[in-house]
Amino acid sequence: MQKIGHFIDGKHVEGTSGRYTDVYNPATGEVQAQVALASQAEMDAAVANAAEAQLGWAATNPQRRARVMMKFVDLLNRDMDKLAEALSREHGKTLPDAKGDIIRGLEVAEFCIGAPHLLKGEYTEGAGPGIDMYSMRQPLGVVAGITPFNFPAMIPMWKFCPAISCGNAFILKPSERDPSVPIMLAELMIEAGLPAGVLNVVNGDKSAVDAICDDETIQAVGFVGSTPIAQYVYSRATANGKRAQCFGGAKNHMIIMPDADLDQAADALVGAGYGAAGERCMAVSVAVPVGETTANALIEKLAPKVEALKIGPYTAGNDVDFGPLVTKEALGRVRGLVDQGVREGANLVVDGRDFSMQGYENGFFMGGCLFDNVTKDMDIYKTEIFGPVLSVVRAESYEEALDLPLSHEYGNGTAIFTRDGDTARDFASRINIGMVGINVPIPVPLAYHTFGGWKKSGFGDLNQHGPDGFKFYTRTKTVTSRWPSGLKDGAEFVIPTMK
To answer: Which CATH topology does 252-438 take?
Structure first.
């Protein structure tokens, strides 16, 4: 049985706590490895190592740090197939989807090559008599990231690429469900020229999360996961004086107006709702057609598309639409929520609960499910299902449709499909959600913009990647400088003002 440890000080380190958890192949249901769960002592050692390495790394000029990121991008492209295969084997994603996971992280690394420009400060000459004033951005020191199972390449890179480019050292606590790719990324960073100790990967469970939140050396924490845990990490980290950005759950609505291209909308819903088995925080899980005619026509187009979805292991080829859920527990939870929806009175138009694949009967597979006539009071509407389930909530008017995402507790992403510019502009202006798509079903911003939700989907002032990433991982220091001019006026006891 393969044992997966940690990656500390530029090398693999075996776990010493004696605690392990199983890593599954979701397609077969078999245990393929065991990953070590760190003790407090192991976490302390990693933090101490990072703190020592950070001093020299912070003293390295930004352009040289950017060259490491440039080389890292080259290595990601070189090892794309190897990384994707490892990701698919542990997560269950199709290979094209796994490559998309990696590429979305790679794009953030590319953005971070511009760190020298992004780290520039401001300067004012002659702010007062003989006084110049300037600001500089400096790294925080040691920072940490706690990342989820559903994007084991992308989200770690969203965290550590800007943090390291700013001159910080980074402690990564990835999901214990699919730990191999984060360690492979750390290996590539070392190969790219990153000094040992600047990026450490420590596997663990809640005790490791608590250790990160409580450690006095760690200055900032980035988290992505469920809303209850996001709130917990944010509260505990900030209570200990840390900067924190924590992103939680989602319930993403897509409104379909009567003038929308319904073929385009149906294709968008199937891809956005069922891709990666729905295990995406930006998955569209609620379709809101406006008007009975629109709703009936949409269901007529959706049902055969959902029934025709090709499901299978990543080894079945690139035409597989999605693979298994990540664990048996995740599968049971999603099935339970579908059962609940039936009990609550929603119309299960397509039922994928009993999907089984010959030769993979023990895998964590589930077919696509499509609900119609879902209402706001149902659990399947209020809860983030995180599975291949799409709910259709019918609205009589645009205002009724708009109110659904407006009043929902989550505010991660949303979309509207329409041909009317006035409606689109009104929607974008009024909606209280962080990322908005207009005829785009999954509005994930590119790397040079920022990613983040509102309401209970995000906690903290700054978003992930883009300019916000560099703001989050640096502090601004402002210097007021005055050089002797030869004038000797004596001491001043009044607060300086502009004269």
So the answer is: Aldehyde Dehydrogenase; Chain A, domain 2 (3.40.309)
